[in-house]
């Protein structure tokens, strides 16, 4: 017979005196009838040490073993045999897996298990059912036991990973009466989920009892059996990757990239088949398409016994994939791990784990392999100290079957009469608006009615890192202040110069006014920091949205907004919707060319409206006049250190400077010609001039339209915006208009 494990020896040698003490303490001479249900190879590795412990104490416990799920499927190695090899009597075998390749197959499998389990539980009549983890099979088991008034002990509750497993795990937690968790964080999560602290045991992971006692001196025979005679320790890879059921298509693509990277890395690799999940068959097809089963560097297997698997990962050069085993058990040996994708996001890990969250290229995975392969890290005991099973058995013995079955929840204190609090009822729905200008960075809390409740202004930093850090800091500060001013923030809207992909929230490239602002993902870091939806758009488009919601454009089907400020921009609303264009370049109105030999524009072209009519263009002309002593007239004065600006040019024109007046008339004409081109192209019923220069240009624009436009468009209304801050209001409109819409 095989040698006894340390746990078996421990329980065999438990003194009769100790047993009597526990019996007397519990005041219960009745044996506890325990049903352990195992669904797959992974959960059996956690449940087996507990089963050995229960079996070794027949004076306290009666053990019934139920096997279901992928244990009974040939494609996954018929792993029920290892349970038989461990000398456990299997009371019931339940075929519960419905074959299929999509999410529906998992649902049908749960349904099939729910149909079959009641009969089994009726026959066994267990006092308690032990359920492990977060598999859909386990959810069916917990649901059945809860509805049949059978106590449930849940192993590994309170943990966080990052897929549908989280939802299943927490659902089982709410059904379970008792909880065995592995880490202090998991314990705190269970308490936060209102579970009774007295029914939570921080024991550690049962598999660690076996891991930390694994002293197989003949590990080389295990390695050679699975990987070949010529393989050395620390010179091979173990790969174990499962489909992510919330994003099957992406996870299959990631698996394909992983195999490509492993082929290129050119090391002997043991690849285990994935779990039974939606998408698993497609992953197997990918393996076969790549020829993995016949590749000289690869060994593809359906199952490896846990004792041998321990030896394989303990002496591997690296483990790669998205299995919880990689971030949990492998840390006990300090073996390097590459965790791919989001399946284990949120798990506590040791320093041996390198996360590749966005494993979207072969090169990225290959680089991770080069960084990790062959390293040796300190052993981690985050998930256990090797003494989980004795704690669990003691916990089981303490269960009083005379206690009421109905579980109690420990809810935290709630403020009295919150539903009658008038401030809570009248909380203002609002948006955080961010305006990224060439000079200033502004953040504001804007109400649904367009009221700027609170505004923050800072100089816009010159570097990407400083700018993003300041945006986050200002947004966090504003979001905190929103509570004090009784505003509920629905999301964040960002108005920025440059070309923007609003679907992805990315600044594709910016004007020269904002440095280091190309290919910038604004949505992700801000959304992650604030846990709010984020919208991003070009400042001209935001100005048009502001007019549509709060200004002259309200209720108008087709209109155009032109911003006249440091630069010239705008937005086009057609049939009540903003136009972005095929490459998000629509409404770059400042770069309509009105003269082939005009002044050079910042975009590199010549004769653009912006080169004539923007604040920068007027400043340029003002400097020329000033350098020639032709700017200042009677009634004007400038300090020595004062910078010449467009405002000085406008002041000079008002005071009778004919040259300044001529420059302004030329700028107004250029803007007017651009508007005529717009009228002939999109035929709006309204043109709104916005920005600090709008009032200086409106009459000139109307004159050019009267002189140059086709008669059919001369009746268009041209007005000056009455909005005090269109950039911030437009950014807020991104949120307030689209928060409740499904498509943007």
Automatic annotation (TrEMBL):
<keyword id="KW-0808">Transferase</keyword>
<dbReference type="InterPro" id="IPR043129">
    <property type="entry name" value="ATPase_NBD"/>
</dbReference>
<feature type="binding site">
    <location>
        <position position="591"/>
    </location>
    <ligand>
        <name>Zn(2+)</name>
    </ligand>
</feature>
<dbReference type="InterPro" id="IPR020004">
    <property type="entry name" value="UDP-GlcNAc_Epase"/>
</dbReference>
<feature type="binding site">
    <location>
        <position position="610"/>
    </location>
    <ligand>
        <name>an N-acyl-D-mannosamine</name>
    </ligand>
</feature>
<feature type="binding site">
    <location>
        <position position="591"/>
    </location>
    <ligand>
        <name>an N-acyl-D-mannosamine</name>
    </ligand>
</feature>
<keyword id="KW-0547">Nucleotide-binding</keyword>
<feature type="binding site">
    <location>
        <position position="511"/>
    </location>
    <ligand>
        <name>an N-acyl-D-mannosamine</name>
    </ligand>
</feature>
<feature type="binding site">
    <location>
        <position position="499"/>
    </location>
    <ligand>
        <name>an N-acyl-D-mannosamine</name>
    </ligand>
</feature>
<feature type="binding site">
    <location>
        <position position="601"/>
    </location>
    <ligand>
        <name>Zn(2+)</name>
    </ligand>
</feature>
<keyword id="KW-0862">Zinc</keyword>
<dbReference type="Pfam" id="PF00480">
    <property type="entry name" value="ROK"/>
</dbReference>
<comment type="pathway">
    <text>Amino-sugar metabolism; N-acetylneuraminate biosynthesis.</text>
</comment>
<keyword id="KW-0479">Metal-binding</keyword>
<keyword id="KW-0378">Hydrolase</keyword>
<keyword id="KW-0511">Multifunctional enzyme</keyword>
<dbReference type="GO" id="GO:0046872">
    <property type="term" value="F:metal ion binding"/>
</dbReference>
<keyword id="KW-0021">Allosteric enzyme</keyword>
<comment type="similarity">
    <text>In the C-terminal section; belongs to the ROK (NagC/XylR) family.</text>
</comment>
<feature type="binding site">
    <location>
        <position position="539"/>
    </location>
    <ligand>
        <name>an N-acyl-D-mannosamine</name>
    </ligand>
</feature>
<feature type="active site">
    <location>
        <position position="539"/>
    </location>
</feature>
<dbReference type="GO" id="GO:0004553">
    <property type="term" value="F:hydrolase activity, hydrolyzing O-glycosyl compounds"/>
</dbReference>
<comment type="subunit">
    <text>Homodimer. Homotetramer. Homohexamer. The hexameric form exhibits both enzyme activities, whereas the dimeric form only catalyzes the phosphorylation of N-acyl-D-mannosamine.</text>
</comment>
<keyword id="KW-0418">Kinase</keyword>
<keyword id="KW-0963">Cytoplasm</keyword>
<dbReference type="GO" id="GO:0009384">
    <property type="term" value="F:N-acylmannosamine kinase activity"/>
</dbReference>
<dbReference type="InterPro" id="IPR000600">
    <property type="entry name" value="ROK"/>
</dbReference>
<dbReference type="GO" id="GO:0005829">
    <property type="term" value="C:cytosol"/>
</dbReference>
<dbReference type="InterPro" id="IPR003331">
    <property type="entry name" value="UDP_GlcNAc_Epimerase_2_dom"/>
</dbReference>
<feature type="binding site">
    <location>
        <position position="588"/>
    </location>
    <ligand>
        <name>an N-acyl-D-mannosamine</name>
    </ligand>
</feature>
<dbReference type="GO" id="GO:0008761">
    <property type="term" value="F:UDP-N-acetylglucosamine 2-epimerase activity"/>
</dbReference>
<keyword id="KW-0597">Phosphoprotein</keyword>
<comment type="similarity">
    <text>In the N-terminal section; belongs to the UDP-N-acetylglucosamine 2-epimerase family.</text>
</comment>
<protein>
    <recommendedName>
        <fullName>Bifunctional UDP-N-acetylglucosamine 2-epimerase/N-acetylmannosamine kinase</fullName>
        <ecNumber>2.7.1.60</ecNumber>
        <ecNumber>3.2.1.183</ecNumber>
    </recommendedName>
</protein>
<feature type="binding site">
    <location>
        <position position="603"/>
    </location>
    <ligand>
        <name>Zn(2+)</name>
    </ligand>
</feature>
<dbReference type="GO" id="GO:0006047">
    <property type="term" value="P:UDP-N-acetylglucosamine metabolic process"/>
</dbReference>
<dbReference type="Pfam" id="PF02350">
    <property type="entry name" value="Epimerase_2"/>
</dbReference>
<feature type="binding site">
    <location>
        <position position="608"/>
    </location>
    <ligand>
        <name>Zn(2+)</name>
    </ligand>
</feature>
<dbReference type="GO" id="GO:0005524">
    <property type="term" value="F:ATP binding"/>
</dbReference>
<feature type="domain" description="UDP-N-acetylglucosamine 2-epimerase">
    <location>
        <begin position="60"/>
        <end position="397"/>
    </location>
</feature>
<keyword id="KW-0067">ATP-binding</keyword>
């Amino acid at each position: 017979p095989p040698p006894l494990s340390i746990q078996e020896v421990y329980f065999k040698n438990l003194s009769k005196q100790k047993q009597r003490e526990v019996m007397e303490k519990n005041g219960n001479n009745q044996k506890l009838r325990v049903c352990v249900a195992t669904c797959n190879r992974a959960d059996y590795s956690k449940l087996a040490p507990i089963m050995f412990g229960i079996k070794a104490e027949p004076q306290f416990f009666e053990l019934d073993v139920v096997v279901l799920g992928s244990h009974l499927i040939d494609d996954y190695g018929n792993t029920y045999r290892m349970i038989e090899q461990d000398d456990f009597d299997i009371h019931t075998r339940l075929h519960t897996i419905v074959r299929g390749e999509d999410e529906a197959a998992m649902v049908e499998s749960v349904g099939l298990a729910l149909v079959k389990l009641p009969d089994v539980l009726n026959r066994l009549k267990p006092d308690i059912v032990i359920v492990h983890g977060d598999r859909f099979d386990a959810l069916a088991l917990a649901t059945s036991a809860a509805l049949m008034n059978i106590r449930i002990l849940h192993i590994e509750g309170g943990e966080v990973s990052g897929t549908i497993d989280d939802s299943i795990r927490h659902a089982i937690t709410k059904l379970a009466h008792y909880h065995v968790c592995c880490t202090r964080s998991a314990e705190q999560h269970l308490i936060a989920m209102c579970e009774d602290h007295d029914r939570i045991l921080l024991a550690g992971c049962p598999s660690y009892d076996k891991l930390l006692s694994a002293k197989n001196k003949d590990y080389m025979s295990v390695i050679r059996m699975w990987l070949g005679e010529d393989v050395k320790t620390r010179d091979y890879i173990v790969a174990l990757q499962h489909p992510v059921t919330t994003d099957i298509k992406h996870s299959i693509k990631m698996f394909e990239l992983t195999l490509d990277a492993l082929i290129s890395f050119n090391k002997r690799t043991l690849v285990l088949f994935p779990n039974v999940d939606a998408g698993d068959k497609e992953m197997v097809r990918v393996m076969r398409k790549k020829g993995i089963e016949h590749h000289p560097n690869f060994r593809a297997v359906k199952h490896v016994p846990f004792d041998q698997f321990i030896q394989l990962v303990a002496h591997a050069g690296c483990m790669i994939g998205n299995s919880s085993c990689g971030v949990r058990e492998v840390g006990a040996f300090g073996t390097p791990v590459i965790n791919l994708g989001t399946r284990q996001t949120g798990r506590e890990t040791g320093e041996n784990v390198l996360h590749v969250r966005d494993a979207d290229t072969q090169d990225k995975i290959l680089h991770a392999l080069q960084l990790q392969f062959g390293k040796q890290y300190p052993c981690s005991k985050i998930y256990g100290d090797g003494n989980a099973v004795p704690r669990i058995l003691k916990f089981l013995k303490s269960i009083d079957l005379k206690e009421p079955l109905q579980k109690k929840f420990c809810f935290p204190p709630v403020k009295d009469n919150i539903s009658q609090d008038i401030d809570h009822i009248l909380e203002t729905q609002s948006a955080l608006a961010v305006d990224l200008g060439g000079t200033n960075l502004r953040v504001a809390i804007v109400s649904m009615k367009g009221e700027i409740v609170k505004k923050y202004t800072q100089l816009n930093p010159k570097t990407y890192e400083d700018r993003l850090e300041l945006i986050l800091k200002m947004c966090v500060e504003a979001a905190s202040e929103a509570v004090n001013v009784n505003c509920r923030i629905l999301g964040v809207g960002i108005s920025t110069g440059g070309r923007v992909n609003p679907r992805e929230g990315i600044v594709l490239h910016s004007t020269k006014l904002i440095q280091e602002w190309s290919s910038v993902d604004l949505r992700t870091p801000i959304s992650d920091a604030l846990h709010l939806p984020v919208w991003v758009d070009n400042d001209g488009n935001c100005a048009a949205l502001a007019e549509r919601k709060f200004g002259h454009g309200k209720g108008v089907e087709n209109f155009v907004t032109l911003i006249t400020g440091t630069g010239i921009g705008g937005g086009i609303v057609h049939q009540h919707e903003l136009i972005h264009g095929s490459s998000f370049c629509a409404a770059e109105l400042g770069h309509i060319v009105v003269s082939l030999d005009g002044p050079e524009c910042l975009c590199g072209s010549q004769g653009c409206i912006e080169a004539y009519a923007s604040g920068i263009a007027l400043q340029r002309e003002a400097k020329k006049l000033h350098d020639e002593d032709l700017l200042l007239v009677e009634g004007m004065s400038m300090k020595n250190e004062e910078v010449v600006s467009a405002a000085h040019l406008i002041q000079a024109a008002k005071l009778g400077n004919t040259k300044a007046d001529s420059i302004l008339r030329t700028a107004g004409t250029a803007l007017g010609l651009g508007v005529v081109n717009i009228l002939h192209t999109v035929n709006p019923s309204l043109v709104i001039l916005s920005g600090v220069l709008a009032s200086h240009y409106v009459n000139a624009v109307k004159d050019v339209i009267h002189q140059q436009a086709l008669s059919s468009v001369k009746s268009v209304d041209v007005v000056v915006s009455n909005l005090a801050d269109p950039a911030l209001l437009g950014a807020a409109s991104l949120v307030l208009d689209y928060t409740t819409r499904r498509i943007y």
